[in-house]
Amino acid sequence: xxxxxxxxxxxxxxxxLVLPLFLFLISLGIGxxxxxxxxxxxxxxxxxxxxxxxxxxxxxxxxxxxxxLPRVLLAMAVGAALSVSGASLQALFKNPLVNEYILGISSGxxxxxxxxxxxxxxxxxxxxxxxxxxxxxxxxxxxxxxKGESHFISLLLTGIIVTAFFSALLSLxxxxxxxxxxxALFFWLMGSLSLASWMDLYISLPxxxxxxxxxxxxxxxxxxxxxxxxxxxxxxxxxxxxxxLVIAATTLITAAATAIVxxxxxxxxxxxxxxxxxxxxxxRRVVPLSAALGASLMMIADDIIRGVSSFExxxxxxxxxxxxxxxxxxxxxTRKVWL
Amino acid sequence: xxNECFGNGVKNLSGSVDIPKLLKIFIAVSPFFxxxxxxxxxxxxxxxxRLHRTVVVPSRVERILSLQPEITRILVALGVxxxxxxxxxxxxxxxxxFKILFPGGTGLPVVSMPxxxxxxxxxxxxxxDIVFTSPTELQVADSIQRSLGIPVAAxxxxxxxDGLLEEIDLIGVLTGRPERASELRxxxxxxxxxxxxxIGPIAFETRPKTYLAFWSSLVRTPVFYEPVQTAxxxxxxxxxxxxxxxxxxxxxxxxQILKWDPEIILIQGSFLPRERQVTVEGVLQDRRLGSIRxxxxxxxxxxxxxxxxxxxxxxxxxxLYLARLFHPEKFDGLDLEKEGNAIYEMFYLKxxxxxxxxxxxxxxxxxxx
Lengths: 339, 369
Known about the structure:
The complex is a heterodimer.
Chain A lengths: L1 H27 L8 H12 L9 H36 L11 H16 L5 H20 L6 H25 L2 H11 L8 H20 L1 H7 L3 H6 L4 H23 L5 H13 L3 H26 L6 H20 L5
Helix pairs in contact in A: 1-3, 1-13, 3-8, 3-11, 3-12, 3-13, 4-5, 4-6, 4-7, 4-11, 5-6, 5-11, 8-11, 9-13, 12-13, 12-14, 13-14
Chain B lengths: L18 H11 L8 E4 L2 E5 L5 E4 L6 E3 L2 H9 L6 E4 L1 H6 L1 H6 L18 H7 L3 E4 L6 H9 L3 E3 L6 H14 L3 H22 L9 E5 L6 E3 L3 H5 L3 E2 L13 E3 L2 H7 L3 E5 L11 H6 L7 H4 L3 E4 L8 H15 L9 H13 L4 H9 L2 H4 L2
Parallel strand pairs in B: 4-5, 4-6, 6-7, 8-10, 8-12, 12-13
Antiparallel strand pairs in B: 1-2, 2-3, 9-11
């Protein structure tokens, strides 16, 4: 029986790891323009060899290369980043209620973007300022909470306080912003992939890739770090150094993702739980499978937005609408949240 | 927070009724009810506002607190700006036109803020006979009236010419300036008639397909915009539903713009160049849009659009500008600067306002001959 169960879990894991690739291809075919699969295929061929398919409309190539491809890639990257970040922090803090924004990243990024939009105008991309202030917020949390190895409760509390502080600063900037700038800020805060471009990917993808690789390499140490500090030390792990490394990597990927697409709620909370419910709490599995499932859920949510409604609904709403029912079904079925 | 307007374009220029549009308008207008007329009694005047509230207003309105920019502009146009005792934050702080129209207004107390909060103590101190608010701020009118006992009317044109003219008439009656209101109404109607007559009958298919990028974003657009229709154009987003009830705005995808393949793209330019998040240059250089006709033919322009409803003179000048843009052959020899200044002078009794506006907003393309 146990062997059967194991092979089923292995099959499911392989399916989840391959799912993003299928969804990637399907997502390229979804959009309001209505290009047939054949049209898409010829558009791809015309990109590879422009002379072989001269009749392909220029709009097909623009939609495929400049609109859908960067958008789908960004959805994948952001979904993977937020989910892995949530999984790593939940393991690190040994707390199932932690999410990827717990250390003040979202409010820091929002404040940075607001500051940039209001005072620097179009000359400076709000994404860059958003990233800088997300890192500043986490830096402030680490600095204020001190270096003690067993002060993670203090770290969480400081995170909450720094979040509140940056939220207040954001409100202050909003208060003085002109309504024209305020509109651009609200649009960013809602979280959206609607204006995704290659430039967004150039900015965010290298940072997300570096952070994901670091967390993937650290995945077995997350298992050790989820024990008590004494146990971890007895296994030869430099607890403080490893914890700082995990926080730095999660900050990098969450800040890079949030700065580009705004605040996407629930993903980093739900996805790691879903993975643990299905595969257990071993972070060697949780980290890569969270990346795959997060990327998939994000693409599904974005596909629904692009394929169903005539207008763009903020994707954060859909990640919740898609993720929460799945979470509840699994919760009811397995009756366990934290293993 | 911003107030989007609402249009009533039930009939197209050929006179046929557009059923989907009727449905769209019904859905969008559902939170509101049509402005009712004014009933006069010995107690004062009774009006019904856009929130279907019955408001009793003193027979003589001497002290006015306007938290609705469109009403503030109408008060200036009716020549009763000196009765204003306070303003909303937008007109007081961010409306570049208002500073030109009524320089004295910049010294008036600002009572409301972007988060829809109002300073009730300040309102009491200002002691207005009536307060005007926007119907999109659903709670504000009742909140002020209930706690301070001051009559509050929530009024707006909702983005339709008819709504705007009704509003001008109503404010004219309330302020004892019905003749001036009537004069403005006739002038407005005459100008619109003149534009549509100059264009002549035009088939729907031959109207230039126009996409409007409003409210600081490439993908936010109005689902109805009457000046485009008056000017003989076709708003490509006309068949969409608004994203929020009671507004005329929606958010679409970049891909949808490519699908529409508009011949002209209009970007909202009613604010200072340094505050623009979307620019003509930026849109022309956006490689995602490269296959669109408007980009290939470099037909991307600024238009006025609206924040916090309309400026009645601005609507007329915009319709005239768009008519020339869409059908240049029919407006050969039009001196838009001269016409624009005349329109603004009719409403605000000041010379060269349009020239100043063109200068401050860097809309020089408008006045090129």
